[in-house]
Amino acid sequence: MTDDGSPDRDETPAVRSDGGTKGADDVALDPWGASTVDDYRKLFDEFGIESFDDVLPRVPHPHYLMRRGVIFGHRDYRPVADAMANDEPFATLSGFMPTGDPHIGHKLVFDELIWHQERGADAYGLIADLEAHAARGLSWEEIDEHTESYLLSLIALGFDPEAGTLYRQSTNREVQDLAFELGTKANFSELGAIYDFDGETEVSYMQSVITQMADILYPQLSEPKPTVIPVGPDQDPHMRLARDLAGRMRYFKVTEAYASFELDDDERELVARAYDALSADVADPETDVRCNAAAEWLRSEDLAEPGVDSAIEILRSGGKEPLRPRVRFLNRNATDEAFEALIEAIEGEKRVYDEHIDSFELDRHNAERLAREIEVEHGGYGFLPPSSIYHRFMSGLTGGKMSSSIPASHISLLDDPEDGYDKVKSATTGGRETAEEQRRLGGKADECPVYELYAYLLANDDDEFATDVYDECVGGERLCGGCKEQAAELMREFLETHQEKREEAKELLESLDIELESDRR
Ligand code: TRP
Ligand code: SF4
User: Fold this and answer.
1) Residue 493 clears pLDDT 60, i.e. is over it
2) Angle CA(384)–CA(37)–CA(471) in degrees, nearest 5?
3) Which ligand is closest in space to the CA of residue 426?
């Protein structure tokens, strides 16, 4: 353990729990739907979210939410972890719809932003007021009422608004301009397919989606840098679209190729195999492996994989053209000058075509770097695909989902500390019918919303405490009455302190250049 209580790199995290997150819903990633997820594993298989365990060892002194498996998944977090470890620029951003009071679920995201900021990130917190207005139909008056509250809690928990940036979507002209540009790369059918939009969907609703895309890429306006967006998994469709749009804005796309023609991913993999097999037996692999020979090889292998037939056909029409591995720069949106500059900058043997350039000496990684450099020098953004991390949803204190429409199911950061205490005291538990049974069988901490409170919030950075609660519970030494009393007191203390800090944050918030009252109506 290190002095801040976090495990050293490579050490297996001490505290794990499945968070006991049991919801009624199947997996459905819908940004505006019900936000519970029954089976987090499905998110890996069906949506391609990666398990956070895979990157955890690369994260220097991981946050307790990472160590405890509350942050369970990610997309492409590696570049962020590496930037953090190597003291290179990186950013973090998340957004909040001001639809109600901030609650302990939002605190997870606040903490994630703050933690990355403390580790050197350019940090951004935004109020998604356009989205709240367009997608949720909130009036500007209601939006104003909650906007200040989110910002106060974020600052009270440790966000430094002078080092970082807080903004409202509605007043950020740069974000709106970027949204407009991104809108040139997305069309209605695509949004329809991703978000189930149809002919009845309001234009402003669609605009709020493209605004979120701009939010996500906003930290890279001045220069490309790894950016992590901490969110719940319901926001994953937004992340996929944002990553895609980041690519569509690029001047060049770098791919690998084997000859003058284009191949899709399946075909390329097959051609690579043919090339490897044939190049082993020739005097000079740079000239002696021919397309038609590769076609014959593939045919003789009798493969039943996707892309075989089309690969054979393409190779046959390539005839005697030699197969030779290369990296390819495809022109996506480059200006003429940028295209010329890239040609100039590619060292070694190259071949220039109308809309692409093949290089025989650069490797993929250096090619990517060069393409981005030339783009940025010539006025492009050079966006890196933004990364994301996903946290589990907390379950409701009354069992089932945590829902803002059931006050007893969740704890608002504005709740009277005594109410917070009471809500915890009356929470559902994973306890047994009787004390005797509990001593004999142990409690079910993995299904207990009270244990979740400890793991997600009350134990804070103290892994030993969280582990003790867990072990004592499942070992039958801990009974629910006392356990809830302890949790309820900690909750009361937390709310008291947090609300004091909110008071103290008021002055700072007012000194910032953020419009707290909108002129809109
Ligand atoms: N759509 C998010 C929500 O429903 C809010 C949001 C807007 C956001 N812009 C964002 C989240 C950018 C992350 C990043 O809560
Ligand atoms: Fe939950 Fe605590 Fe009861 Fe265990 S002892 S089931 S953690 S309330």
Assistant:
1) yes
2) 105
3) 2
* Tokens of residue 110, six digits: 């606040």
Residue 232: predicted pLDDT: 94
**Residue listed under structure tokens 């046959």:** 316
Query: Closest-lying ligand to the alpha carbon of 128?
Result: 1
Angle CA 265–239–365, to nearest 5: 45
Q: What is the pLDDT of residue 35?
A: 52
Query: Does ligand 1 lie within 6 Å of residue 231's CB atom?
Result: yes
Q: Helix 308-318 vs helix 265-279: angle between axes, to the nearest 10 degrees?
A: 60
Whether the CB-CB separation of 228 and 92 falls below 8 Å is answered with yes
Give DSSP secondary structure letters for 502-516: HHHHHHHHHHSS--S
CA of residue 127 to ligand 1 center, whole Å: 8
How many whole angstroms from 213 Cα to the centroid of ligand 1?
9
Q: What's the rounded mean pLDDT across residues 50-60?
A: 95
Where do we find the tokens 């690029």?
Answer: 250
Q: What is the pLDDT of residue 27?
A: 56
Q: Is 463 in the pocket of ligand 1 (CB under 6 A)?
A: no
CB 274 within 8 A of CB 298: yes
- Are 161 and 155 contacting, i.e. CB atoms less than 8 angstroms apart? yes
443 in ligand 2 pocket by Cβ < 6 Å? yes
Phi and psi at 395, nearest 5°, equal -85, 160
Q: Report the separation in Å between the CA atom of 232 and the middle of ligand 2, taken as the mean of its atom positions.
A: 26
Q: What is the pLDDT of residues 260-294, one digit of tens each?
A: 999 999 999 999 999 999 999 999 998 999 999 99
Name the closest-CA residue to atom 3, ligand 2.
Answer: 480
Ligand 2 neighbour 442 (Cβ under 6 A): no
Helix, strand, or coil (residue 329): strand
The answer to whether 94 and 230 are in contact (CB under 8 A) is yes
Structure tokens at 55: 């990157």
Q: Which atom of ligand 1 is nearest to the CA of 208?
A: 7
Token representation of residue 415: 């709740």
Alpha helices in 119-165 (DSSP H): 129-136, 140-156
What is the tens place of the pLDDT at every residue in 403-454? 877 888 999 999 999 999 999 999 999 999 999 999 999 999 999 999 999 9
Q: Give residue 47's pLDDT.
A: 87
- Ligand 1 centre to CA of 245 (Å) is 16
Domains in the chain and their CATH numbers?
Answer: 27-249+386-391 (3.40.50.620), 253-377 (no CATH), 407-511 (1.10.240.10)
